[in-house]
Fold:
Amino acid sequence: MSRVMQEIAGTHRSENLAALSSLGEQVVLEVGRQPVSTNA
Structure:
């Protein structure tokens, strides 16, 4: 794989990780607002 492709893949990976982590935070916040019994 060429260096440019590796760099593009690397940036996409970090962007995806950032998006996933922010999504995870939103899910945790949503779950935190609900009673625990609904998550069982």
Summary: The radius of gyration is 17 Å. Residues 3-33 form the longest helix (31 residues).
